[in-house]
């Protein structure tokens, strides 16, 4: 009799356990970034930011619409390639993700945004800065950083007003990001009364810049701006040194990484490089950011490169909208996400305007001394 009772109790417990598990809500969050190729260190940095947010959300036991949510991260590699990016986007749509964080590059974020828009799935990029990303009329596209109009224009003004650049050269890698930020930089230089003495271009996989640098050297630039990523900027800095070009070197967030001194192989002089990160942390937010970086280092045994904190905030902003809407269904939480305003993240206060751009986006200007990044100022 006792045996039968134990069997019955066990069966009831199994049913109850199964019922509880059935009531759990599985929420799939997609993340896309270049985790292979020349800028894999940046893509992995972003992905780790997403994993950190997902792990913490699961530990907290978040409920959405009365159900305990179990968050799953579906990570895809786009290798920084637009075609691979759209393929990764479609794969996530086929997997029925509830939302997407990414992509890292503007060149992959822009074409992928149509895939997400067609499916009605929200996408928050932590790092795509080309203005076109939020100018296609897609209601599903958002970003948590300032765009290139602000970034490039600010750097252009800084080159003229603060660095006293008299003859400024511009190089870009012909990607959506690189050419976009270089164009805005050039506009900023001219608007500030500066002179651009040369404009050259390369590509995002190049390693030899002798021809374009030799051409620019003849024009005696005192500032060289590069629109592109750190994997190209490092070798470019080495070759500038070899050719005896002593100009200040500037760039956007793509070069503003912890890896740049290594990629430049020790050829960077203190204060030679000035770059800007499309985000800004000041005041009380500094404590949150430092706390995040410490937790990140403890968890993953590596330092933050650039955008892991912005990925972390993007995941949490998306989930906060789900909680507020009482649903993880894209169509139901998207309108709530679009109205996000005053969210306190580790990167500062987040709110979106009508286009999906961050409100009052900040920039942080950096230089490098002793092989380490050093903050110059936060600009809004």
TrEMBL record:
Keywords: Amino-acid transport, Signal, Transport. Residues 27-371 form the Leucine-binding protein domain. Residues 1-22 form the signal peptide. Coiled coil: none annotated. The keyword Aminoacyl-tRNA synthetase does not apply. InterPro entries: Leu-bd (IPR028081), Leu_Ile_Val-bd (IPR000709), Peripla_BP_I (IPR028082). GO terms for biological process: amino acid transport. Pfam families: Peripla_BP_6. It comes from the Bacteria. Belongs to the leucine-binding protein family. This is Branched-chain amino acid ABC transporter substrate-binding protein. It comes from Paucibacter sediminis.
């Amino acid at each position: 009799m006792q045996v039968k009772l134990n069997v019955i109790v066990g069966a009831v417990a199994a049913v109850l356990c199964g019922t509880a598990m059935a009531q759990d809500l599985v929420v799939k969050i997609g993340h896309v970034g270049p985790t292979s190729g020349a800028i894999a260190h940046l893509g992995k940095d972003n992905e780790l930011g997403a994993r950190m947010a997902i792990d913490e959300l699961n530990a907290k036991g978040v409920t959405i619409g009365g159900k305990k949510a179990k968050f799953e991260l579906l990570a895809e590699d786009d290798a920084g390639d637009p075609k691979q990016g759209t393929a990764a986007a479609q794969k996530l749509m086929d997997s029925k993700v509830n939302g997407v964080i990414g992509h890292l590059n503007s060149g992959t974020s822009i074409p992928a945004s149509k895939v997400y828009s067609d499916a009605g799935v929200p996408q928050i990029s932590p790092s795509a800065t080309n203005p076109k990303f939020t100018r296609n009329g897609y209601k599903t596209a958002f970003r948590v950083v300032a765009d290139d109009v602000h970034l490039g224009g600010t750097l252009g003004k800084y080159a003229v007003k603060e660095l006293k650049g008299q003859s400024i050269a511009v190089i870009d890698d012909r990607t959506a990001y690189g050419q976009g930020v270089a164009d805005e930089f050039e506009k900023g230089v001219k608007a500030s009364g500066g002179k651009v003495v040369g404009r050259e271009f390369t590509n995002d996989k190049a390693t030899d810049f002798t021809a374009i640098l030799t051409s620019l050297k003849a024009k005696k630039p005192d500032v060289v701006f590069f629109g592109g990523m750190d994997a190209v900027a490092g070798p470019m800095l080495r070759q500038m040194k070899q050719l005896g070009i002593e100009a200040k070197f500037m760039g956007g967030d793509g070069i503003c990484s912890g890896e740049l001194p290594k990629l430049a192989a020790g050829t960077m002089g203190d204060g030679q490089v000035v770059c800007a990160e499309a985000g800004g942390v000041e005041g009380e937010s500094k404590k949150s950011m430092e706390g995040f970086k410490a937790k990140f280092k403890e968890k993953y045994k590596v330092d933050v490169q650039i955008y892991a904190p912005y990925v972390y905030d993007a995941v949490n902003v998306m989930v906060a909208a789900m909680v507020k809407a009482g649903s993880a269904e894209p169509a139901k939480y998207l309108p709530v996400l679009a109205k996000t305003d005053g969210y306190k993240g580790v990167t500062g206060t987040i709110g979106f305007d009508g286009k999906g751009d961050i409100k009052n986006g900040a920039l942080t200007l950096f230089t490098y001394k002793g092989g380490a990044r050093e903050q110059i100022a936060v600009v809004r």
